[in-house]
Amino acid sequence: MDNEKLEQYKATIKKPSRKEFMAQIERLGLSYENLIEMYTTMCVIRRFERMADQLYAAGKVHGTMHLSAGQEAVAVGLGRALNLDDYFLNHHRGHGHFVAKDADMNLMMAEFLGKEAGYCKGRGGSMHIADIEANNLGANGIVGGGISLAVGVGLALQMQRKNEIVCVVFGDGAANEGIFHESLNMAALWDLPVLFVCENNQYGMSMQVERATAKLPIAQRAEGYGMRWHHIDGNDVLLVYETMQDVIEHVRSGKGPALVETETYRYFGHSKSDRNLYRTKDEIDEWKEIDPINRFKNLLVDANILTEESAQGIEQDAQKQIDEAVAFAESSPEPDVETLTEFVYA
Amino acid sequence: MPIPFIMPKFDMDQENATVVEWLKDEGEYIELDEAVLTVETDKVAIEVPAPATGKLVKLSAAPGDVVPVTTVIAYVLEDGETEDDLPEEEVVSKVEKAQVTEEIATSEVHPPADIKIEDAQQAGTATPVAARMAQEMGIDLAAVPIAGGRLTKSDIEAYIQTTSLPDGRVKVSATPAARRLSNELGVELISVPGSGPGGRVQADDVRSFESRMAPEIPIDGREADLVPLVGIRRTIAERMQSSFQAAPHIALTVDVDMTQLEAARDRMNAIAEKRDEKRISVTALLVRIIAWVLESNPHINASLVEDTIYLWRDINIGVATAIEDGLIVPVIRKASQKSVREINNDLKNLSVKARDGSLALEEVKDGTFTLSNLGMFGIDQFRAIINPPESAILAVGKVVRKPVVINNQDEIEVRPIMSMTLSADHRVIDGVVAANFLQDLVLAIEAPDILLY
Amino acid sequence: MPEITYLEAIRTALREEMIRDERVFLFGEDIGRYGGAFGVTFGLLDEFGPERVRETPISEAAIVGAATGAALVGMRPVAELMFMDFVLLTMEQLVNQAAKVRFMFGGKGTVPMVLRMPGGSGTGAAAQHSQSLESLLIHIPGIKVVNPSTPYDAKGLLLSSIRDPNPVCFVEHKLLYKVKGEVPEEEYTIPIGAAEVKRKGKDLTVVAGNIMVPRSLAVAEKLSAEGIEVEVVDPRTLRPLDVDTISDSVRKTGRLLVVHEACQTGGWAGEVIASVSSSPAFNYLDAPMRRLAGADVPIPYNRNLEQAAVPQEEDIEREIRALVSNQY
After folding, report:
1. Which of C273, C286, C326 to mutate to test the interface with B (most CBs of B within 10 A)?
2. CB atoms within 10 A of CB A63
3. Cβ within 8 Å, pair C25-A159
4. What are phi and psi of A265, to 5 degrees?
5. Segment A67-86, tens digit of pLDDT
6. Which of A72, B3, B166, C190 is most buried, by the most CB atoms less than 10 A from its CB?
7. d(CA C326, nearest CA chain B) in Å
8. What residue ranges define each of the domains in chain B, with the CATH number in brackets?
9. Nearest to C62 by CA among A338, A145, A221, B17
10. Is the pLDDT of residue C235 over 70?
């Protein structure tokens, strides 16, 4: 967004009053524990991404990483709205989503470092983390790569008469891939139980979404396929949670797929080689003013659900958890070269 | 057109000729068939006749020059022609793949008068010998560097050295199946003519070559006791075969009157008895005499190693000795410098060791001539196979008392006669040389006192 | 034994497996009432209903992507691409997703998916509907590539393909659809990765890909009358390639000719020849190993040019004769 648009956007964001807030959490059926847990998870994600960045800077990570710091509200709001055994497909900027789906951080870190103990035995790395048994069908390195897979999963769930749905998260750039359109058409045609989530973080790689997309918002494209759609502030974790809950029920009931676009922002560059030449520090700072974690924390503190001290304690615990994960990963053994050609065929 | 005067080829594998002298000078008028030039080849000096009548010009070879055959060395201008009519110099450049034919006359002394100019000016081609070698070996002539004007046999040999593999093999164009078969059948791939494209050796070529070599021996359904060809038997088999195949054997037989030698032996044995020394054997005497004769017949005491004949200074005579399962040849070293008594002692020691199997390597190597005696087994006469790398072997039979005509009169006496057969390697020893040796040997055996000379 | 066509053999296999395993479903364009562009799935809609014989929009990429996703969560989709040429639209989903999921995820997750596609020229369909692209596919670790040449092989291999837990590209040839052959009624399968010696011989080995098998067999029959005995090996599976059977044959005959319709450059004949060269058969070669392949040209429309672009019987015969008479 350019500055003008950003100002307009920020103007639409209202901080709810305490009364409105309490009403909301009651409506959503969220306890204080739930809220603290959500907050904690957001902190963990932020810390996790920072740690990933540090590990990379220390030369410990082979390849590159795509960090999602700034997008925690989407991850947590969505993650908490889905059921544990709902199927999930992700994009390459998916650490946050993974953590929000209760991934084991030890195994995640081990995978980053390419260790045998990692989720994918070191074969996938940051971009391809998956936990099939938990119905997490993986992060995908191809932009839009998971979208048609999700259609297939939805098709299977429908044929198997299952209660689960499948959610696929992709970015604003993916919405311009042909496969996005083929997939939305197919899902809508057959009323497949697919929740399409477009995490619009304003940039493809270096390309602003306005320069790449003929008509915004992206979510409105769903209309062309006769599909339900929403376009929301992705940095408001409770709004995300509320919207997703509603949409998921629709999808689960067999009424057809849906597309939810969440506006958010990423603080780090696209990947580790990104020098942020395409945006200004000012812009990043502007977005930090509506940082999702801070916003949520303020709400919780104002409602006396959280204190500054306990917030700090949460941060420290998060850091500790991550440090342990790093220690685990670093002391983990490398895969045996002799096993190079395993896993190609079943 | 001026007629090119080429250096003619006289022998099949002649590569060059050396110019000795021009009998006619530049500008001189010559007649067809008139002797114009003397050259020398490997064997002999030859006069080269004029190919046409006319003026001899542009002599391009000087005395002492070694000129490859079919090179143009002069021109003959016919009536009305001048030097301006001569063709331009052809720059000798690279060799093309030779379309080799052996059409250039080989056995005729006169160069064929119908050699075309183009043929004669083939400065850039290969000699027929080289071309044939190249085809047999599957070598691409274009790849062979040339030392001189034409690609010769030595160029090919030089090239082979450079493309030889370290273990001494030479590159041959052959299919993998042919190579495998040649290994299995023990056939030298280089000797197999190839029927594939470019002379490539195919598997069938190896098979038919091998079947020509070795006739099929039917063994099915027939009983036999089996003796594996191993150890000394195998060694003898391989050596005998390679000797017989490598050396063209000639055999000359002569009878010798042993009367004088036997008398000499008796006299020596009288001394030996008095001195309580070993009795002298006929073999020891023969060895001593042979050694003396070899001194004046050095080509019999020789070895052919690649392209060189070694006329050994030492005379080391081996004596073929039968042992269990085979044959071994202990050597009496420097036999011409030893007395009969010494040779006799050596022989006795060596034959004991031979039977024990305790001969040292020193005692069986460096032989230059071999004596083989089957007389004690009742054999009259036989032909032995040369013991490589020697060039001759003498096979003697038993002494038989026979009536012979003596003194070139018609008188007959009974004399002890022994038959001796010399087998010689004709690459080294010609018939006359072998005959001379045998004559000298007969003389010495029939009058052994001449060894005192 | 009953004789049915290659096409009927495929249909029968689909039908039998759909009865046997309810996870199997068909997925592709116009496979329902229309029965598939070539008629392979005709009648199956009536028997199994629109859920299991699911017609799709014209979305090849999504077809393969969705098949991958469905396979990942327990279904056994058999997707149909109308022409092999269209596999190019699906390469992302086939190569980056289906082929790699299992490996990238450290051995978890399987994609038991079959992708059927008819390829080949001879029907005047021209450049964009006549290609033989299996050489591109065999290059990808993680998928299997099968190309049967007879009705018997088609049925047995299709059953094995559906039952295989890996993504399998099942390559058919349009000109083979109407070919008849004996096919038993009882169930049988043919293992993936097993070549078959279709004809024994001692003078030369021909390794032929689908449509080239009947052509090579016809030539072999003809040459047999002259005493030239050609051994014809049908690889049946291109990835994994049964190098042992091919190598044993070449070891016996000493000569190899690989024949396929696909273009020569980068064609899978090179793979066969390189594999044989590295096998024990090398030392038994009595001639250079040769390939006879399609011209490096898009398939032309004109009938004669179309014929000339790919090996025909005369070409096969000519090459065999040249090889056995040591012209190479």
Report:
1. C286
2. 12
3. yes
4. -155, 145
5. 999 999 999 999 999 999 99
6. A72
7. 6
8. 3-160 (2.40.50.100), 176-213 (4.10.320.10), 234-452 (3.30.559.10)
9. A145
10. yes
Q: Which residues of C touch B175 (CB under 8 A)?
A: 254, 285-287
The reply to whether A346 falls in a domain is no
Residue C166 has pLDDT above 70, yes or no: yes
B177/C328 touch (CB, cutoff 8 Å), yes or no: no
Residue B94's pLDDT band (cuts 50, 70, 90): very low
Whether A194 is in a domain gets the answer: yes
With an 8 Å Cβ cutoff, the interface of chain B facing chain C consists of 175-180, 195-197, 200, 202-204
Whether residues B175 and C286 touch (CB distance < 8 A) is answered with: yes
**Mean pLDDT to the nearest integer, B196-213:** 86
Q: How far apart are CA C172 and CA C14, in angstroms?
A: 14
Residue C328 at interface with chain B, using a CB cutoff of 8 Å: yes
Which residue type occupies B204? D
Nearest CA in chain C to A124: C104
**Residue A3 resides in a domain:** no
Quick check: is B426 catalytic? Answer: yes
Q: What is the ipTM of this complex?
A: 0.88
Q: Which residues of A touch C115 (CB under 8 A)?
A: none
**Which chains sit next to B, with 3 or more Cβ pairs under 8 A?**
C
Active site residue C129: yes
Answer whether B179 sits within 8 Å of C283, measured CB to CB.
yes
Describe chain B by its helix, strand, coil percentages, rounded to 5.
35, 25, 45
Q: Which residues pair with B54 in a beta bridge?
A: B30
Q: What is the pLDDT of residue B135?
A: 76
Q: Using the beta-carbon criterion (under 8 Å), do B175 and C283 form an inter-chain contact?
A: no
Q: Do A124 and C105 touch (CB under 8 A)?
A: yes
CA distance A126 to chain C (A): 11
Residues constituting chain B: 453
Q: What is the CATH number of the domain that holds A75?
A: 3.40.50.970
Q: How far is CA B199 from CA B13, B136, B179, C279, in A?
A: 21, 7, 14, 26
d(CA B35, CA B22): 9
Q: Which domains does chain C have, with CATH numbers?
A: 3-182 (3.40.50.970), 196-324 (3.40.50.920)
CA distance A33 to A30: 8
Query: In this predicted model, what pLDDT tens digit does every residue of A203-227 receive, in sequence order?
Result: 988 889 999 999 999 999 999 999 9
B194/chain C closest Cα distance in angstroms: 11
pLDDT digits (tens, 9 = 90+) for B20-46: 889 888 888 888 878 888 888 765 677
Query: Span A152-159, mean pLDDT?
Result: 98
Residue whose structure tokens are 């190569």: C95
- Answer whether C50's CB lies under 8 Å from C192's CB: no
Give the count of domains, chain A: 1
Contacts of C328 in chain B (CB under 8 A): 197
Instruction: Give pLDDT tens digits for C49-87.
Output: 999 999 999 999 999 999 999 999 999 999 999 999 999
